[in-house]
Amino acid sequence: MSVITPPTDLLRQQDPQMADVLAGEAQRQATTLQMSAAENFTSPAVLAALGSALANKYAEGYPGARHHGGCEYADLAERTAIERARALFGVEHANVQPHSGSSAVLAAYAALLRPGDTVLAMGLPYGGHLTHGSPANFSGRWFHFVAYGVHPRTGLIDYEQVQRLARTHRPKAIVCGSISYPRHPEYSAFREIADEVGAALVVDAAHPIGLVAGGAAPSPVPYADLVCATTHKVLRGPRGGMVLCGAEYAERVDRAVFPFTQGGAQMHTIAAKAVAFGEAAGPDFARYAHRVVANARALAGALIERGFGVTTGGTDTHLITADPARLGLDGPTARGRLAAAGIVLDTCALPYGDQRGIRLGTAAVTTQGMGEAEMERIAELFAAALRGAATETRTKVGDLARGFPPYGGR
Asked: Which of 19, 220, 352, 385 is the most buried (most CB within 10 A)?
């Protein structure tokens, strides 16, 4: 019996233009350094699931209660993903249907809030996400957000400020999480503050959830009412989201995802999530997660030695935020010079300043097999690129990247 496995040469034959696009992207990834804190390389098994026959299946609803026929294997894939997520994170319920991290946060708000409710979350200038109250996002348009920040001297979350704002504004929910905070939040402190004011605690763990899976970061599960997360980044799964919660919130979360905020589930992506959860449960992934953190700490130290202002003085996670102002550059200019040298990363807001900095991460290069010695080398390449030696640095970046092929370092 034949199976559906479309070869790449079929794409080349049918649509050479798109085949060239995909080949170009693969070449780009293999010859540059992927330092974005939000990116990683999935396994070949995850890629296989994404390109599977489940891409053809429409499966609105949940296992055993679909709005379409022929869902026997779709149900099996989703049940497998749910059970693996529950076991991996020690939760009573997991919804694996959200299409993205933002979709997961939207579902969490829909399960807990009504339009106009007050929410306390990290302000965008301090590392908060768009879904934490940006006026350009549904969150800022539908809810009243109050922002907490970080201490101006240490760059660490100001828990006294969080408590003071919670007592003053009595939010319906408190959001703990960010896109550029490099330290572990004190989940117990957030839980105490939420309990004091009668608020629900939502942890947006989009960035650290992969480290949690590998035992390299504390878990928010014992403290949060709802945990929202992505399945890519350090977790090395497909691009997508999930919501984790206790049994008491299960029905509300499920209804918030479908039918309130989403339609049909992307079953090929859910199958790929199941594969990633299975991979993350093994000892190899635990070793990987700890190497990610060790590499990030080594890279942060090497950047500090070369004049970068690293926020909070270092990192506990996979990500680093840095201010290149001491080198006479702002974030966008630094990103442009690094990109010209083949080093791909992001800009980010910096606390207590109008300038933007840079945000980088070690998840992808660690997947490639790089270690602390390479982090020292990468810091040298950063410094050279920012001094303006883009052409020479680009050659060295290419040499380093080719020595660690994306699918050869596992």
From this structure: 220
Name the DSSP letter for residue 221. T
What local confidence, expressed as pLDDT, does residue 138 receive?
96
DSSP string, 338-369: HHHTTEE-EEEE-TTSSSEEEEEESHHHHHTT
- Catalytic: 60? yes
Which has the closest alpha carbon to 326: 311, 341, 348?
A: 311
Residue 109 known to be catalytic = no
Annotated catalytic, 204?
yes
Token pair 């070869």 in the structure block, residue:
7
Confirm if 98 and 254 have CB atoms less than 8 A apart. no
Q: How many CB atoms lie within 10 A of CB 89?
A: 21
Helix (H) or strand (E) holding 254: helix 250-255
| Phi, psi (rounded to 5 degrees) for 348 | -155, 165
Identify whether residues 226 and 374 lie together within a single domain.
no
Q: 313-332: b or e for each residue (b if 16 or more CB lie within 10 Å)?
A: ebbbbbbbbbbbbebebbbe
| Per annotation, catalytic residue among 233, 236, 297, 337 | 233
Q: What is the pLDDT of residues 70-108, one digit of tens each?
A: 999 999 999 999 999 999 999 999 999 999 999 999 999
Q: Is the pLDDT of residue 261 over 70?
A: yes
399 flagged as catalytic:
no
Annotation says 58 is catalytic: yes
To the query of whether residue 230 is one of the catalytic residues in this protein, the response is yes
| Residue 222, token pair as written in the block | 């014992």
Residue range 304-350, pLDDT digits in tens: 999 999 999 999 999 999 999 989 999 999 999 999 999 999 999 99
Last residue within a domain, chosen from 264, 280, 296: 280
Indicate if the alpha-carbon torsion angle 335, 139, 102, 178 is positive or negative: positive
**Residue 309 and residue 276 share a domain:** no
Same domain, 234 and 148: yes
Q: Which of 32, 80, 187, 204 is catalytic?
A: 204
Rounded to two decimals, what is the model's pTM?
Answer: 0.95
Closest CA to 148 of 114, 168, 137: 168
Three-class secondary structure of residue 348 per DSSP: strand
